[in-house]
Design brief:
This protein has 3 helices and 6 strands; from the N terminus they run ββββββααα. By secondary structure, it is of the alpha+beta class. Strands 1-2-3-6-5-4 form a 6-stranded antiparallel β-sheet, with no helix packed on it. The radius of gyration is 18 Å and the shape is globular. Bound molecules: zinc ion (ZN) (2 copies). One zinc ion (ZN) binds next to loops.
Length: 176
């Protein structure tokens, strides 16, 4: 498998009971198959420490504007780029087909220091929706039916926070 960011050949590395693919000696990125990242994304999950020192060739420069193709899926599926959490300090690239995730060098460290736990991250997202998004949706809803469609696409735009969980109409306390 080649690195989706720089094309370097990925090599495998063990971290606890997961085996991920690292771009060792290339851009320093890491590929996680579906459900692998969640085993090492918290500071308390010490297995993840084994992935913080992937060697990086300083001569390999990754263009931050470039979108990546999934290294695993056959027909060049483009990875979705979205924020890891409502703090919006780290972006991740996730495959809509296989659920794999690519992290650029340094992003795993950022994720591990972002929130102490998965629950805390989701609680922050819920709070953000209640405080910021829901009132805006209520305001939009008060307008005509035409405007409602606009509100829905607006809500849709917020899916980047936790794409699988915050589809309009599905989150708790949904405005629709
Ligand atoms: Zn690479
Ligand atoms: Zn994929």
């Amino acid at each position: 498998m080649s690195c989706p960011a720089c094309g370097h050949a990925l090599s495998t590395r063990n971290a606890g009971d997961v085996t991920v693919d690292v771009c060792d000696g290339g851009c320093g990125g890491i590929w996680f198959d579906h459900f692998e990242l969640q085993k090492v994304d918290e500071q308390s999950e010490s297995a993840g420490e084994a992935l913080l020192d992937v060697r990086r060739d300083p001569g390999v420069v990754v263009d931050p504007a470039e979108r990546y193709n999934c290294p695993k899926c056959a027909d060049a599926v483009v990875l979705m780029r979205h924020f890891w959490s409502v703090k919006r300090d780290v972006t991740i690239d996730e495959c809509p087909e296989c659920g794999g995730i690519f992290l650029d060098a340094g992003e795993l460290a950022g994720i591990r220091s972002d929130f102490p736990s998965e629950d805390a991250r989701h609680a922050a997202a819920d709070a953000y929706f209640k405080e910021v998004v829901d009132p805006l949706l209520d305001e939009e809803r008060a307008k005509s039916a035409d405007e409602l469609a606009k509100a829905q696409s607006f809500a849709h735009a917020f899916r980047f926070i936790c794409p699988s969980e915050y589809i309009p109409g599905k989150q708790a306390g949904a405005a629709f």
